Amino acid sequence: MVFSYKTRNKEIQDVQNEELDLLVIGGGITGAGVAVQAAASGMKTALVEMQDFAEGTSSRSTKLVHGGIRYLKTFDVEVVSDTVKERANVQRIAPHIPKPDPMLLPIYDEPGATFNMFSVKVAMDLYDRLAGVTGKFANYTLNQSEVLEREPQLEKDGLQGGGVYLDFRNNDARLVIENVKKAHEDGARMLNKAKVNKITHDQEGKVNGAEVKDLLTGKTFHISAKVVINTSGPWTDEVRELDKKDDLADQMRPTKGVHLVVDKEKLNVPQPTYFDTGENDGRMIFVVPREDKTYFGTTDTDYHGDLNNPTVTQEDVDYLLGIVNRRYPDAGITLDDIESSWAGLRPLIAANGGSDYNGGGSGSLSDESFNNVVNATKEYLNDSAKRDEVEKAIKEADSEQDNGEVDPSQVSRGSSLEEASDGLLTLSGGKITDYRLMAEGALKKIQEKLNERFDLVDSKEYPVSGGEIDPANVDEEIAQLAKQAQEKGLNEKDALYLANLYGSNLPKVLTYDEPVKGLSKRDSLSLNYALNEELALTPADYLMRRTNFILFIRDELDDLKQPVIDKMADFYQWTDEEKANYTKELEEVVAASDLKELKGE
Description:
alpha+beta; FAD/NAD(P)-binding domain; 8-stranded mixed β-sheet; 6-stranded antiparallel β-sheet
């Protein structure tokens, strides 16, 4: 189904002429997940997003679908169990996006270390049991020399060895886009660059829709809906303020996470690596290879600035470079080596003190949690000496639980579904791994409020756009799709790139074969498809969120920018002023990613 500027204009007209069942405010992963389930269940649905889809937070994650092994620092078995099950569900419905990528966890003997060699093996075995991981992806440990054989640049002092366990890499923005496209295919009106100005009410004071401004034309219109749900992430409290009858207290405590990208020749790691900062600050850092680059992060600091424009500061850079250069002493990475970067906000809920992926506690360890540990690690408990060590580890974890003020890196990633007295629903918090499960819970509440019987879709078995691939044979099916692209004249590398990017949508992508002046066949296909089928409205939309050129293919970006701008100007019939404005916007996005201000350029 075509999903373009033309369909957007028509749908803006359509939503003004009927009452919808559901209006979703916020087009990140949470809102997209709600919309796709609602539309598939037959609800008349619209979604509005004031920026581009995924622009605010859902394109700014660590780009992994975590299993949550870090929760096992405090033996938080229930959380890990839920997380790994949900990760499997996401991989089932979007098999072309999350891909298995075993994680290396070097273990250092130093103050504040999360794991030692014994406890990491207990944690990994427990993790594998909870995740049902067997065979080639089962965990294993390495001694010091084996770790250094894999990553010779790693710091040797204090290195005891390491563990390897299964995690999944992710293309966060693409996951959102594919959910958005599927919702649209099922009849939902999905509108980006459409900002809610206020929540509206009926004569009884109940929410009945919203006043929305089309940021492309400046025109304001009203959307009527029986149910309105706020899924705006860090903007949750701001959207609530647009509802003058919302009686719920503010709940968000956004934190900022920063990631930096360098060329793999500067920092060459064979697989994702996850280690303590060495600062005894309770944090851990990821170093992840991707598309001939290596990126690392994240920071986790309270944020009080402009929600629309979190930036990478010198303090952020100094913190990350200090840690990475200590862990990789020969790398010597400087500010000038950073090719690109991103800063994003996490929609954390202030009231929930507890364990996020950076650790933290949630109070004393319950008997139920202890029994889960015992049952799931019974192979250790057959040895009384090992039982003592397990019990000691649990007691130590217990003693580390939070009893006071919660550090920003320890605020819970838990989610919340609340209803104000006027009927406004708010779905907030959570993490990208949980988006489907959060939406599933919200849909049950929405159906209850609609007081109408909808056949709710089984979202665990409902593929997103591009996801019509057997999750048990992803590599084989991606290879077969790539062969179709090679038959159209693409080389093997470009064909695989497109197959991985678009999954089962690749045959449709290959129909958009009009050459674009200045672009390769690969990029012509991709851009044409994004304009006609993915509602990419600006050059930044395309180069940052429909593709990863700005972040991970920076070497090609400078040659691509002008041809992309020229094609989009022709496609949208921009005036000279509009073309200049979109060019300026793109240059500002690239400059921020390049850290030009910090570099003094």
